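Milestone 3.1: sequence recovery, worked example.
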Protein backbone atom coordinates (compact mmCIF):
# COMPACT_ATOMS: atom_id res chain seq x y z
CA UNK A 1 0.00 0.00 0.00
CA UNK A 2 1.28 3.49 -0.85
CA UNK A 3 0.69 6.08 1.88
CA UNK A 4 0.73 9.14 -0.37
CA UNK A 5 -1.35 11.22 2.06
CA UNK A 6 1.18 10.59 4.83
CA UNK A 7 4.04 11.52 2.52
CA UNK A 8 2.46 14.79 1.48
CA UNK A 9 0.46 16.12 4.40
CA UNK A 10 2.17 15.31 7.68
CA UNK A 11 4.71 17.70 9.22
CA UNK A 12 8.36 17.27 8.31
CA UNK A 13 11.23 16.79 10.69
CA UNK A 14 13.07 19.76 12.17
CA UNK A 15 14.35 22.10 9.46
CA UNK A 16 17.87 22.13 10.94
CA UNK A 17 18.45 18.48 10.02
CA UNK A 18 20.79 17.65 7.15
CA UNK A 19 18.54 16.02 4.54
CA UNK A 20 21.47 14.79 2.47
CA UNK A 21 23.04 13.12 5.52
CA UNK A 22 19.71 11.45 6.35
CA UNK A 23 19.46 10.22 2.76
CA UNK A 24 22.99 8.84 2.86
CA UNK A 25 22.25 6.96 6.09
CA UNK A 26 19.07 5.47 4.61
CA UNK A 27 20.95 4.38 1.48
CA UNK A 28 23.83 2.91 3.49
CA UNK A 29 21.49 0.90 5.73
CA UNK A 30 19.40 -0.23 2.76
CA UNK A 31 22.44 -1.54 0.90
CA UNK A 32 23.87 -3.14 4.05
CA UNK A 33 20.59 -5.06 4.38
CA UNK A 34 20.79 -6.10 0.71
CA UNK A 35 17.58 -4.27 -0.23
CA UNK A 36 16.78 -2.62 -3.54
CA UNK A 37 14.89 0.67 -3.58
CA UNK A 38 11.78 -1.21 -4.68
CA UNK A 39 12.08 -3.81 -1.90
CA UNK A 40 12.53 -1.25 0.87
CA UNK A 41 9.79 0.98 -0.52
CA UNK A 42 7.36 -1.95 -0.53
CA UNK A 43 8.27 -2.91 3.04
CA UNK A 44 7.85 0.69 4.20
CA UNK A 45 4.58 1.21 2.31
CA UNK A 46 6.07 4.10 0.31
CA UNK A 47 6.43 4.87 -3.37
CA UNK A 48 9.82 4.21 -4.94
CA UNK A 49 9.97 7.84 -6.06
CA UNK A 50 9.39 9.07 -2.49
CA UNK A 51 12.09 6.81 -1.06
CA UNK A 52 14.50 7.76 -3.83
CA UNK A 53 13.91 11.48 -3.15
CA UNK A 54 14.62 10.94 0.56
CA UNK A 55 17.85 9.08 -0.25
CA UNK A 56 18.99 11.90 -2.54
CA UNK A 57 18.25 14.48 0.17
CA UNK A 58 15.72 16.19 -2.07
CA UNK A 59 12.67 15.71 0.16
CA UNK A 60 12.21 16.20 3.89
CA UNK A 61 10.54 13.09 5.25
CA UNK A 62 7.68 13.35 7.71
CA UNK A 63 7.81 11.75 11.16
CA UNK A 64 5.62 8.89 9.94
CA UNK A 65 7.71 8.36 6.79
CA UNK A 66 10.90 8.17 8.88
CA UNK A 67 9.11 5.74 11.19
CA UNK A 68 8.14 3.54 8.24
CA UNK A 69 11.62 3.58 6.72
CA UNK A 70 13.30 2.84 10.05
CA UNK A 71 10.85 0.02 10.77
CA UNK A 72 11.35 -1.53 7.34
CA UNK A 73 15.10 -1.49 7.97
CA UNK A 74 14.73 -2.91 11.48
CA UNK A 75 16.30 0.29 12.76
CA UNK A 76 15.36 3.51 14.58
CA UNK A 77 14.61 7.10 13.64
CA UNK A 78 17.62 8.10 15.75
CA UNK A 79 19.95 6.10 13.50
CA UNK A 80 18.53 7.87 10.44
CA UNK A 81 19.03 11.40 11.80
CA UNK A 82 22.25 11.04 13.83
CA UNK A 83 25.72 9.60 13.25
CA UNK A 84 27.00 6.72 15.36
CA UNK A 85 29.05 7.53 18.45
CA UNK A 86 31.63 4.72 18.73
CA UNK A 87 32.87 5.46 22.26
CA UNK A 88 32.45 3.74 25.61
CA UNK A 89 30.40 6.53 27.17
CA UNK A 90 28.52 9.36 25.47
CA UNK A 91 27.03 12.47 27.03
CA UNK A 92 24.23 13.81 24.86
CA UNK A 93 23.80 17.40 26.02
CA UNK A 94 20.32 18.90 26.03
CA UNK A 95 21.16 21.40 23.29
CA UNK A 96 22.50 18.62 21.03
CA UNK A 97 19.39 16.43 21.19
CA UNK A 98 17.36 16.22 17.99
CA UNK A 99 13.74 17.39 18.21
CA UNK A 100 11.26 15.98 15.71
CA UNK A 101 8.05 18.06 15.65
CA UNK A 102 4.60 16.63 15.07
CA UNK A 103 1.27 18.06 14.00
CA UNK A 104 -0.66 19.95 16.68
CA UNK A 105 2.38 21.14 18.61
CA UNK A 106 3.66 17.83 19.98
CA UNK A 107 7.38 17.13 19.94
CA UNK A 108 9.59 14.07 20.11
CA UNK A 109 13.06 14.67 21.58
CA UNK A 110 15.56 11.89 20.84
CA UNK A 111 17.65 11.46 23.99
CA UNK A 112 19.63 8.32 23.08
CA UNK A 113 22.93 8.48 21.19
CA UNK A 114 23.34 6.15 18.22
CA UNK A 115 25.88 3.43 19.01
CA UNK A 116 27.25 0.72 16.71
CA UNK A 117 25.41 -2.58 16.57
CA UNK A 118 22.54 -1.60 18.89
CA UNK A 119 19.11 -0.65 17.58
CA UNK A 120 17.89 1.19 20.66
CA UNK A 121 16.02 4.48 20.84
CA UNK A 122 14.82 6.54 23.79
CA UNK A 123 12.62 9.59 23.28
CA UNK A 124 10.87 12.14 25.44
CA UNK A 125 7.55 13.19 23.97
CA UNK A 126 5.57 16.28 24.92
CA UNK A 127 1.89 16.03 24.00
CA UNK A 128 -0.32 19.11 24.56
CA UNK A 129 -3.92 18.72 25.78
CA UNK A 130 -6.32 17.34 23.17
CA UNK A 131 -3.58 16.32 20.73
CA UNK A 132 -3.52 12.97 18.95
CA UNK A 133 0.01 12.02 17.82
CA UNK A 134 -1.34 9.46 15.37
CA UNK A 135 -1.11 5.71 14.91
CA UNK A 136 2.11 3.90 14.09
CA UNK A 137 2.55 0.56 12.39
CA UNK A 138 4.15 -2.58 13.82
CA UNK A 139 7.90 -2.92 14.24
CA UNK A 140 9.92 -6.03 13.42
CA UNK A 141 9.63 -9.33 15.28
CA UNK A 142 11.31 -9.37 18.70
CA UNK A 143 11.02 -5.59 19.09
CA UNK A 144 9.80 -4.11 22.37
CA UNK A 145 8.65 -0.72 23.63
CA UNK A 146 8.71 0.58 27.19
CA UNK A 147 6.87 3.75 28.19
CA UNK A 148 6.83 5.83 31.39
CA UNK A 149 4.44 8.75 31.88
CA UNK A 150 6.20 11.65 33.62
CA UNK A 151 3.37 14.20 33.71
CA UNK A 152 -0.31 14.34 32.79
CA UNK A 153 -2.35 11.53 31.27
CA UNK A 154 -1.83 9.45 28.14
CA UNK A 155 -4.15 7.18 26.20
CA UNK A 156 -2.08 4.49 24.51
CA UNK A 157 -3.90 2.38 21.93
CA UNK A 158 -2.47 -1.05 21.13
CA UNK A 159 -4.18 -2.90 18.27
CA UNK A 160 -7.42 -1.07 19.07
CA UNK A 161 -7.31 -1.58 22.86
CA UNK A 162 -6.99 1.60 24.92
CA UNK A 163 -4.77 1.87 27.99
CA UNK A 164 -5.23 5.01 30.10
CA UNK A 165 -2.00 5.91 31.87
CA UNK A 166 -1.41 8.54 34.56
CA UNK A 167 1.80 10.15 35.81
CA UNK A 168 4.08 7.44 37.20
CA UNK A 169 2.43 4.62 35.24
CA UNK A 170 4.62 2.47 33.03
CA UNK A 171 3.87 -0.10 30.34
CA UNK A 172 5.74 -2.57 28.16
CA UNK A 173 4.34 -3.89 24.91
CA UNK A 174 5.33 -6.08 22.02
CA UNK A 175 6.51 -3.89 19.16
CA UNK A 176 4.55 -5.91 16.62
CA UNK A 177 1.23 -4.19 17.30
CA UNK A 178 -0.18 -0.98 15.90
CA UNK A 179 0.16 1.76 18.49
CA UNK A 180 -1.22 5.26 18.91
CA UNK A 181 -0.79 8.08 21.42
CA UNK A 182 -3.20 10.83 22.44
CA UNK A 183 -3.75 13.23 25.31
CA UNK A 184 -7.41 13.50 26.33
CA UNK A 185 -6.51 15.40 29.50
CA UNK A 186 -6.57 19.09 30.36
CA UNK A 187 -2.81 19.42 30.93
CA UNK A 188 0.28 18.65 28.89
CA UNK A 189 1.47 15.06 28.95
CA UNK A 190 5.17 14.18 28.96
CA UNK A 191 6.37 10.62 28.62
CA UNK A 192 9.55 8.71 27.91
CA UNK A 193 9.48 5.94 25.32
CA UNK A 194 12.28 3.40 24.87
CA UNK A 195 12.39 0.98 21.96
CA UNK A 196 14.71 -1.87 21.15
CA UNK A 197 14.49 -3.41 17.72
CA UNK A 198 16.04 -6.45 16.07
CA UNK A 199 17.80 -5.37 12.87
CA UNK A 200 16.18 -6.64 9.68
CA UNK A 201 18.50 -8.76 7.56
Amino acid sequence: MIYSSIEEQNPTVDGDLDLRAIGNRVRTLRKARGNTLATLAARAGLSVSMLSAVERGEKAATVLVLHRIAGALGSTIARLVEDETPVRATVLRHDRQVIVPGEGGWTRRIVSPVVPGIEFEMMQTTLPPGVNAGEYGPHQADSHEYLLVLEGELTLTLDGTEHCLAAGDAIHHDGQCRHGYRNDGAVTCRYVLAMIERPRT
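The domain at 94-196 is CATH 2.60.120.10 (Jelly Rolls). Helices lie at 4-9, 19-32, 37-44, 48-55, 63-73, 77-81.
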